[in-house]
Amino acid sequence: MINRIVFVDDDTIQHMINKKNLMRLKPDLELFFFEDPNLALKWFENEEADLLVLDVNMPEMRGWDFLDLLKSKGISLEVKMLTSSMDPEDIEMSMNYEMVSGFLIKPLKNEIMAEILGIENS
Fold first, then answer.
1. Which of 48, 71, 99, 120 has the CB geometry, 3.0–4.6 Å to 79, for a possible disulfide?
2. Domain containing 61: what range?
3. What is the four-CA torsion angle of 16, 19, 24, 25, rounded to 10 degrees?
4. For position 76, which CATH number holds?
5. CA-CA distance, 81 to 43, in Å (whole number)?
6. Where does the Response regulatory domain lie (predicted)?
7. Do residues 55 and 82 lie in contact, with contact meaning Cβ atoms separated by under 8 Å?
8. Cβ–Cβ under 8 Å, residues 32 and 61
9. In angstroms, how far is the first alpha carbon of the chain from the final one?
């Protein structure tokens, strides 16, 4: 069951939308949002989450670099890569990471979020 979700994405508007929609679907979720991937990495040193939603392309570092840093710190969790467009290269790249369980297209749809949370969307 997913109770704690971390978003690492440089898009603050998406953070607001995702928070509003997710809290409507499951009000007891613990949500953590980071625009700066370095702050997120630091957070993961002392905290855990059930799911990481990670943007593929950010100004500070690519999502793949973030995953490499998580792995080097011995941190493992389920990751959904967040993207604006499905690039075949990204799909191929995801095969190198056991943690990556799929891709999500921006903006996140309520149906997809409900499915991830294992709840019926009404």
1. 99
2. 4-117
3. 140
4. 3.40.50.2300
5. 19
6. 4-121
7. yes
8. no
9. 19
Query: What does pTM read for this prediction?
Result: 0.94
CA distances to 43, 48, 51 from 7, rounded to whole Å, are: 12, 13, 9
Q: Quick check: 25 and 51 in contact, CB under 8 A?
A: no
Q: List per-residue pLDDT tens for the chain, 122 residues long.
A: 899 999 999 999 999 999 999 999 999 999 999 999 999 999 999 999 999 999 999 998 999 999 999 999 999 999 999 998 778 898 899 999 999 999 999 999 999 999 999 987 55
How many domains would you assign to the chain?
1
Which uninterrupted H or E stretch holds 70? helix 63-72
